[in-house]
Amino acid sequence: MSYDFQIMAYSKQSTSTEIYWAIRNCGHLITSLHSAIASPPFYHYTDFAGLKGILSDRTMWFSHIRTMNDPSELDYGRSVVLKALEAHARQEHCLPEVLTFLDRCADLLYLLDRNQHQFYVACFSEHGNRLSQWRGYASGGHGYCMKFNINTATQYGYLPGAGHTDATVHTRKIVYDPMKQSEIARKGVNAIVQGFKKTTKNGRLKTLEDRLNHTVPESADFLLDLLLTFKHAAFEEEAEWRMLLVMDSGFRQETIQYRNGCAGVTPFIAMRISKLQDGSQLFPIETITAGPGLDPLTSIDVTKMLVGTASKSDHWIQIQPDEITVEHAGFRLR
Predict the structure, then answer these.
(1) Is the entire prediction scored with pTM above 0.70?
(2) When you count CB atoms within 10 A of the terminal residue's CB, does the N or C end of the chain come out lower?
(3) Is the dihedral of CA 256, 238, 222, 66 positive or negative?
(4) DSSP string of 231-282?
(5) 196-220 pLDDT, tens per residue?
């Protein structure tokens, strides 16, 4: 899986050649994190209702980031990046126009909560059949764990009637180590500052305001991309990968649905997922594991029946039962 540059929330296209190349020259910081020669396993833990819905609709639910298990994670990631901006601003040699550039970037990051943009995520783990995940996300062990084959060929789409067809989904690996987070943020800030300085040297943009207008939005997008991958170390055992969907202020409200969740009313967007194989669109699920709180024999038989029923539905994304392994966790939990 290769890393995709880049999330665009504040800028709709690259507006500065200098920032564009500064970000890409800095790309090794995150490319190694979010890329893999072989796609990592993607495990999703859910209850029976979730399993049934995923198989029936061929969708994953992307929930609003503020309704996740750590409601403060957006604040946490932002604080890491803001500290890096502030640290650079305190350097003795920091030029006044660079200070203005850093302040403008910080201002955009502070706007994240002002409904300028909405962030929706679907969460996965690198770990299958992990006790803590069963307890936390699969009805205390009475749910299911689904293994997906997700890579650069995976296709995403909104449900019919939402006014969209294809969707841009970013896949990111979560970083938990505070020292690694600080290093990434510091080097990221250094990169965009160097890009901004080059706009002054080449003389193409004559005024400071022109340089800021051409560099700040894309720089803020890069910093936003970083902070959305930072999470408190207490959650490290989750080994999370996430799919991220960025909705700007112009998205259609009918795209959003609502359900009851741990945070109360939870906005979510149902996204269809598929892969093209031999001319057919297939649902990219490989394995379904019944939880340790379920009876081994009964849960396997019933789950196979559920998969078979879903495969016979009139849906343009096909499910191939013979290609899906159904198993039990292999241990029991009351």
Answers:
(1) yes
(2) C
(3) positive
(4) --GGGGGG-EEEEEEEEETTS-GGG-EEEEETTEEEEEEEEEEEEEETTEEE
(5) 998 877 777 778 998 899 899 999 9
